[in-house]
Amino acid sequence: PHILILGAPGAGKGTQSANIAEEFDVEHVTTGDALRSNKEMDISDMDTEYDTPAEYMDQGELVPDEVVNAIVDEALSQADGYVLDGYPRNLEQAEELSEMTDLDVVLYLDVDEEELVHRLTGRRMDPETGEIYHVEYNPPEDPEIEGRLEQREDDTEETVKERLRVYRENTEPVVEHYEEEGVLERVDGNQAPDEVWADVKATIEDAA
Ligand code: AP5
Ligand code: ZN
C-alpha cells in the first residue's frame, strides 16, 4: 500500500513508520533521514538562501521545496509500497505529491503540544542502527547501546520551539487539506507506543 503518515515534530512518525515498514513490507521513505544523510550536500546552484540543508535544519526551518521534492520523487519512483514520513510539509509540497502518486491511507498522529516537547528533548538515536529511543519512555536495555546514543542536533529546546512554530504555520494547513478531502484517519498519538501501533495497524488494515 501507499501510506502517508502526518504529525507534528515528535508525534511518533518515525517510531510508527518503522512498525509499518516491517508489518506491511513497505519502504520507509523519510525526508528527514534522507536530508540528515545529505546534510552537507551543495544546493547553491538551486538558487536557495543557504548552500546546504544543514543550515536550514539546524535552525528548524524547512529545506527549500525544490530540494525536497526531488528527493521524494526519486524515492517513490523506486518504491513499490511505501510509508511516507516528513512530507508534505506545506501546501505546495502536497500539490507536488498529488502529481507524483496516489495515496491509499493518510494517517494523522494527534499529540498534545507539551508532550511533543518532552518527547523531542528526551529523544536519543543509535547512530549504528538508526533506532529511536527516549531517555524516559523507551531507554535501551543494553548498556553498550546506551553508551553510544546521540541526541539529534535539532532537538534542543530552542530549535524544538521553532520547529513547532514552522509546523503550525506550514504543515497544519496540509492536515486540514486532507481533512477537507475526507481522507484523514486520525489516531490518538498521546497513548503508549504499543497502543498507538495497535490503532495505526487497524486503520491501515481497514483502509488499504
Ligand atoms: P524530520 O526528521 O521529519 O523531523 P520532524 O518532523 O520534526 O519529526 P521528528 O523526527 O522530530 O519526530 P517523529 O514524529 O518522527 O517522532 P519519533 O518517532 O522520532 O525533519 C527534520 C528537519 O528536516 C526539518 O526541521 C526540516 O528542516 C527538514 N525537512 C524534513 N522534511 C522536510 C520537507 N518535507 N520539507 C522541508 N524540509 C524538510 O518520536 C519522538 C520521540 O518520542 C522518540 O524519543 C520516541 O522514542 C518517543 N515516542 C514516540 N512515540 C511515543 C509514544 N507513543 N509515547 C511516548 N514516547 C514516544
Ligand atoms: Zn522522524
UniProtKB/TrEMBL annotation:
A molecular-function term among this protein's GO annotations: AMP kinase activity
**Annotated metabolic or biological route of this protein:** Purine metabolism; AMP biosynthesis via salvage pathway; AMP from ADP: step 1/1
Q: EC no.?
A: 2.7.4.3
Broad class of enzyme this protein falls into: transferase
Its GO CC terms are:
cytoplasm
Per its record, the protein catalyses: AMP + ATP = 2 ADP
* Keyword list, A-Z: ATP-binding, Cytoplasm, Kinase, Nucleotide biosynthesis, Nucleotide-binding, Transferase
Name the major location: cytoplasm
Biological process according to GO = AMP salvage
Function, as annotated, reads: Catalyzes the reversible transfer of the terminal phosphate group between ATP and AMP. Plays an important role in cellular energy homeostasis and in adenine nucleotide metabolism.
Stated family: Belongs to the adenylate kinase family.
> What protein does this entry describe?
Adenylate kinase
The record lists the organism as: Natronococcus amylolyticus DSM 10524
Gene expressing this chain: adk
